[in-house]
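[step 3/7] inverse_fold.run input=structure_tokens len=429
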């Protein structure tokens, strides 16, 4: 189905992975160091065959997001939300964003696209001239100015065909699309969990053109690496997972991939910290804006089902044993009640079937921006408010020193359900 790659010869497959573990009893994590299982280069994405419109439709993806047994909430549902926004925030006209091009993304009617699973796992990122979107099990590249499709849609695992193994055979979803603005590259990934070993399949574009070739990597894990989330940082690509042994939650894992090696197509190391079952659904900071984090700034990570907890991940690929992740720093927030107690209760018209709130975790992304005088993280999650569902959001300033909760709010102007939000900042905040 695919022509042989004309790119450099594939690196040798490591039949046995070397896992180097260091116990860190003071912080309750275990440091794990290993190399990629394999790496190679793709053919240009623009030359890959389009996804078949005759692909079988599945009712639900192979592995839906699994619950993590953590304590939820800080207040009874009948108590008022002290962070509820009382009025719309009026933005000065000089700071108001200007609406740009609007166009339809992947969906019914797009040549080659099939509704191949639910939930759709809609994911995308915007670059200088292109928009990359991954929906269900297919990926496509759009011209940002015109909305025209430049390449695709192609099946996600088609991108990893030259890699072989589970990444090529399995199209399991949970995709994440990132734009590395520091290098003007694209980072796209999904997991492989239908067969073992459990893998995270990562592709880094070799140029700024998302329709071109990609450096491919497969990273292996001893347990099912559910709910992957990825953040771009100057010293690494950071990925987090909820790890399961069968149906048993065994804790979150926070990993860093060697960004410099992956940008060059070289063998790459991953350095991971495995947490216990009291930590789940960690979000890595994902860098936005033109001003990079100050040199040596660790990647910031957030988690929490009943409060915010901040971690600082310092990675050292030269001496991996020097890598550290800080104990969690609690950040006090206004009390809240998770929507649906973290489960399923969101109504939809025309059916009694309810939707999952995913309110037992913070919502991707944890967006980071350096404003020069200060740096900020923003994040959100779903809460019960105003008789429906609302979005609780936070801005944390100066996370590298003593973090400050600069502002917070719950957006719930009526009794409708708002959930599964995503938040970011522009240069004005």
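[step 3/7] decode complete -> sequence:
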């Amino acid at each position: 189905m695919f022509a042989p790659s004309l790119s450099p010869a594939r690196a040798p497959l490591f039949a046995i992975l070397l896992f180097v573990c260091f116990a860190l009893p003071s912080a309750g994590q275990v440091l794990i160091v290993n190399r990629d299982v394999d790496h190679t280069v793709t053919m240009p994405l623009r030359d890959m065959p389009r996804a078949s419109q005759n692909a079988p439709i599945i009712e639900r993806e192979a592995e839906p997001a699994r619950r993590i047994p953590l304590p939820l909430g800080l207040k009874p549902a009948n108590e008022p939300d002290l962070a509820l926004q009382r009025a719309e925030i009026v933005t000065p006209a000089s700071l108001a964003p200007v609406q740009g091009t609007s166009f339809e993304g992947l969906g019914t009617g797009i040549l080659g696209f099939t509704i191949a699973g639910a939930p759709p796992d809609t994911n995308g990122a915007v670059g200088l001239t292109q928009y990359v979107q991954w929906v269900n099990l297919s990926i496509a590249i759009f011209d940002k100015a015109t909305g025209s499709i430049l390449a695709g849609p192609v099946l996600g695992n088609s991108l990893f065909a030259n890699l072989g193994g589970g990444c090529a055979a399995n199209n399991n979803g949970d995709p994440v699309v990132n734009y590395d603005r520091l290098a003007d590259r694209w980072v796209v990934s999904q997991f492989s969990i239908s067969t073992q070993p459990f893998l995270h399949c990562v592709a880094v574009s070799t140029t700024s053109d998302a329709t071109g070739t990609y450096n491919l990597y497969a990273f292996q894990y001893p347990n099912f690496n559910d709910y992957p989330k990825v953040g771009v940082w100057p010293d690494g690509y950071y990925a987090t997972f909820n790890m399961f042994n069968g149906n048993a939650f065994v804790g979150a894992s926070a990993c860093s991939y060697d960004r410099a090696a992956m940008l060059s197509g070289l063998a790459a190391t991953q350095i991971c910290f495995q947490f216990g079952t009291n930590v789940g659904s960690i979000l890595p900071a994902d860098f936005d804006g033109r001003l990079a984090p100050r040199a040596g700034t660790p990647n910031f990570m957030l988690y929490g089902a009943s409060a915010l907890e901040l971690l600082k991940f310092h990675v050292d690929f030269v001496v991996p044993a020097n890598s550290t992740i800080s104990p969690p720093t609690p950040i006090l927030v206004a009390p809240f009640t998770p929507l649906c107690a973290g489960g399923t209760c969101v109504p939809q018209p025309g059916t009694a079937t309810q939707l999952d709130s995913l309110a037992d975790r913070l919502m991707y992304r944890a967006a980071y921006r350096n404003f020069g005088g200060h740096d900020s993280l923003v994040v959100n999650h779903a809460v019960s408010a105003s008789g429906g569902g609302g979005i609780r959001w936070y801005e944390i300033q100066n996370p590298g020193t003593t973090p400050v909760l600069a502002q917070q709010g719950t957006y719930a102007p009526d009794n409708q359900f708002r959930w599964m939000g995503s938040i970011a900042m522009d240069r004005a905040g």
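[step 4/7] annotate
The helical segments are 165-169, 259-264.
The longest strand covers residues 375-385.
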